[in-house]
Write the structure tokens for this entry.
Amino acid sequence: MGSVLESLGDNKLFRFRDLIENLRKKVEKKMEFFDTFLIYSQSVLRKDKAYVSREASACYKKYVGDSVPEHNDRLQQTFQKLKQKLAITSAGVLSCLDRTCTSHIEYIIEWWREISQGKNSNTDAFVNFVLATIMLANKNKPISSYDYKNALKLRKPPSSVTQAEYHLLSLLLSWPTNEDKPVPDLYQLIKSASHAYEREYKTMFRSRYLRPLFFLGPGVSLNRFVHRRVLEILWTKDALQESNTNWKNESIFRDSIVEERLLKVEGAVRNYRVYARFRGTEVEVDANRRDCLCRSGHVSFYLGFTIKGPVAFSIRRRELVTEGDQKIKTPDASSNGMTETGQKQGADVV
């Protein structure tokens, strides 16, 4: 800024330097709030105005992204590049598919990798590096066969300010496949993610609906986490349409193309709670719609992940019958009683 003012030949403008620098810091802080607020949640009563995100991004780019780093070292320059792409926070990285930075995801990965491998690197940088890699996988681009799970374990948990994203990533990397037996501490990982959310974001979001960030799909490693934007594009058939899906009514899951990208999880409903089953082990997850928990029994659903943890979407009952479609009695999961059913084996009934 000093060189620009000097070239203008008007030294009186120097008195505004502190003002503009203070504005830059305030804009940066407010942009981080809007990013987190709109990426992780949405209004229950009405749609969030799309222009809020657009204008906040434009203001941020003008005051922060296009500015020159205060220190001319490589690390600061790398941070500045991330600011230019609005990917300086975890929420910013997770919104790459919602913005026009999709073509720059490879660069974002390399920049966060460079920062995470630095001498004074913290765990936040590695978390953002892995999250960016998941975003690249959602672009159907090849990713490295790296042991992300153990690499994260070797790093110290971050400060309390950024624990929610750290615990969410730990949960994602430890989530079992249908063939795997759940890790012994899966229940604790779910609780840690929930507690981190309550400490960091519960007051901010209050009564807002938590948007799903990822869904569980077929595949291995990071390739099995499907970003919500991928499903929205499949559903609307329009990559340019803004993200305003009503995830609460679950109508998106009636689309067969969307369903093909997801992995159906077996589970059970008991006492108005829903559980996911993995090779005889059950873990409790949240339900996207509480009205689906009125009847106990075997169910199947699609598993999504919000910043708070795992959530069951599109819960459907599974009924069993004998050959010939004759009614049989199956134990009721909540009362150990008997329930009459008359559906074909394995059929999904809403």
The two ends are 62 Å apart (CA to CA). The chain is about 40% helix and 15% strand. The chain has a mean pLDDT of 82. Residues 178 and 278 are 6 Å apart (CA to CA).
